[in-house]
Amino acid sequence: MQYRDFGKTGIKVSALGFGTMRLPVYEGTDFIDENKAISLLRYAVDQGVNYIDTAYSYQDGQAESVTGKALRDGYRSKVYLATKAPVWEYQSERDFDIILNTQMRRLGTNHIDFYMLHSLNADFWDNKVIRYNVLQSLYRAKCDGRIGYIGFSFNDNFDMFKWIVDYWDKWDFCQIHLNYIDEEYQAGLKGLDYAKKRGLAVNIMEPLKNGYLANVPRRTRVIYDEICADPIEIALHYLWDKEGVSCVLSDMSELEHIKYNINSANVSSIGMLSGKRIMAIKKAQLTYINSRLVPCDGCNKCSKCPQKVEIAKNLDAINKKYIYNDLELARDFYKGSVALVGGAATACNGCRWCESVCPKYIEISKWMKKLPEILEI
Q1: Angle, CA of 12, 18 and 19, to the nearest 5°
Q2: pLDDT, tens only, 238-273
Q3: 28, 41, 43, 247: least surrounded by Cβ within 10 Å?
Q4: What is the pTM of this model?
């Protein structure tokens, strides 16, 4: 395993980090298969992965609890543990400590190595972080030993990213959305460069764009076939190639995914891409320009829709139509995984509750209205 400097902390973390947003579940349920998840996490640690990323809200809180169980039997001392505070839950200054204590109990630890404010945007910054003096609470928790290093994950534009970075001199790291399709999305490449100049470590989330850079459309695969390269390897190496990237996070739910990603991480380095591969990436980027991609990463913050609409799956069906230019594929997916089990887009009544919790500001109600026309159903 390759290890990288984590900003100015003096710590080295594995190039590959284990994200727990999509731990394996029992078929047909939302309940995590604990035995399988624990086995996967421990296998990754045994192979050198030393950064585990979870959050208060992942899989309705199950992810933190299962992660805590996986880190028993001596595994806690082998890793750096990161989790995130659900700033949207804060209703008073007391909530910071209440939630942090709950997280430590779930995780079975009295110290969290890396603690983040989750999904920061302008609204959460003004109405939660500043309003409830969260920065002071963070620093207090660091001083009393409950957390080690302070950071934030981000979901807004570059100007807001710059504002947050510059506002406080105690940030140690940040987590941003980046892949070769989304170079200018949210913080983007400019955010990576800005954080690097400020000495912050940078973790990358959604390196495969919710799987779309793994299962690429035919016109993109042809480009990679010409240089005998695998799309997943290209997407990961694109990020590891960049100076300032500390850790690339992958939400791994199958052993084969872990083995593949570890093998890729083992040969990773800054400046690793050849000119031939750089040109292939540029060509691949062009194949996505005309795809009307909905920027949903499947975080499922909208999963409690009052009308029980399966929002993430509906958006996935739309993306399948445009990315793969395959109406039949998209329609079959919609009918098989959405309409058949309930949660069809037509159940949406336009209340826009989902839009109030979406970290990507997707106009979900408009997409739900358009879906029947898009899929021609």
Answers
A1: 125
A2: 999 999 999 999 999 999 999 999 999 999 999 999
A3: 28
A4: 0.84
